[in-house]
Amino acid sequence: MKISKMGMFIAALLLVASVPAAAFDFDKLRSVGEKLKPLKPTSENDEITLGKDVAANLLGASPLVNDPALQAYVNKVGLWIALHTSRPNLPWRFGVLDTNSVNAFATPGGYVFITRGMLIRMRDESELAGVLAHEISHVVEKHALNTMRKGKLVDMASDALSRNKPEYAKLVSAGTEIFARGLDKEDEFAADRMGVVLAARAGYDPYGLPATLQTLSSINPKDDAVSLMFKTHPDSEKRLELVSNAMEGHLDQYADQPKVENRFISLIKSHNSTYKPVK
Amino acid sequence: MKRFNITLFLVGLAVLNTACAEETGNTKKTVTVAQNTDAASTETITVAMNTGTKAKETGTTRVAVDLMATPYRDAKPAGQLPSNTRVDILERRGGWLRISAQGKSGWARLHQVRAGEGPEAKNTGGGLTALKNVSQTGRSGSQGIVATTGIRGLSAEELRSAKPNPKAVESMEASRASDSTARDFARGAGLKEKDVPFLSQE
């Protein structure tokens, strides 16, 4: 233990030494120091608790669609995808938000949401599966949690993850703030790359996510329905191009897997016929 | 040959014309559904009367496209289309779209074509895409309207000022799926699990 700490210290010194004197940067030094500080890994239970409270904030901003059949359907698609990840045993929960905005969200621990505005723009189940798979990837890879750690909340994320500490409330609002600001764009690209593989593993045509990105890139950016989504995500055209290139030669062979159009369309039709917005 | 091209062009124009008529005619109207309290931002949504037909999907090329005879990169070439060409989308297959315009038809990559008229269109967002999906998935029946009314958007400000609703989170337990339900559900649609490795970062 002592040796490894010493090793890190030497590594840090070497790193600092390699920075030219003229470009010496105290911020950089501090960030190196922060990276070296061993962080207590967040326990899965803490992660789930935090995710649940962030989900409560999200549902405070937007209600769930009042349609049990639709909610159950999205839970089945979502869980089927999640079972093909390295964290199949998280308490995965999926919900459709009653808003016209086009967006999707995930909180740590396995709460995943898609807006009705996005759902009704989709053509088939493989598109829904693709978008849920993207969100599931954020959870599996702990993108939100790591974003909190990288920021000022680094200590809090390791120590304050307990509901009865005063810092905890700040952590929950930081988790919510991520929805308003977005994740790092590299995390978004990574979730695209992982999402298409999860969809293929689950037996879907993996091009559902690219097809949705194509739809997104065709929506007028001035439309309020996409303003938050576009503000918090890299350009959809860019995402489409990157993920398509990454898929080429690797996932083409799965393109003939089912898109599951009929089940999706009849579900949406029956939802639409009884739909009443939640006030 | 020239005559043939002109004929095709005219046919193309006629098709385009029909598409425009569908767009602007009685089959569609635009209404204001929600107005944010704080800003001048107004959300509009396309409301389509159900015509009983599947709307044709159209698109616009983002770039100059080398059409392929089959949906493979090493397929035989099937002509070229300049960028910003209005095209009909005839078929979707994986990362490929079969499109036609200017008397040519062939396969283009998904990212080479924008669905609908593209962001520059005067049409409010969703436009053709929403219209198309609406006619596909949309309600028929008495009202004959595919509309979402009274729904607000979800903004950064609303997220920040939200009061937590833990009861709503608890209510999600009612619609959770079990592993075995999910498995049966997948089997019901003929989904077969595959062993697929993750993609490496380029």
Extract low-pLDDT stretches of chain B: 10-53, 118-150
Order the strands across the largest sheet of chain B as they lie in space: 8-7-6-3-9
Number of continuous helical runs of chain A:
14
Q: Spell out the helices and strands of chain B N to C.
A: HEEEEEEEEEHEHHH
Percent in strands of chain A:
5-15%
Query: Any idea what the shape of chain A is?
Result: globular
Order of helices and strands of chain A: HHHHEEEHHHHHHHHHH
Intertermini distance of chain A: 58 Å
User: What is the mean pLDDT of chain A?
Assistant: 86
- CATH topology call of chain B: SH3 type barrels
Give the domain tally of chain A.
2
Shape estimate of chain B: extended
Q: How many domains of chain B, as an integer?
A: 1
Gap from first CA to last CA of chain B: 46 Å
Number of strands of chain A: 3
Give the largest chain-chain interface (CB within 8 Å).
A-B, 106 and 90 residues
Proper CATH architecture of chain B:
Roll
Judged by helices, strands and strand pairing, the structural class of chain B is: alpha+beta
How much helicity do the residues of chain B have?
25-40%
Structural class of chain A: mainly alpha
Can you give me a brief rundown of this structure?
With 279 residues, chain A is mainly alpha-helical.
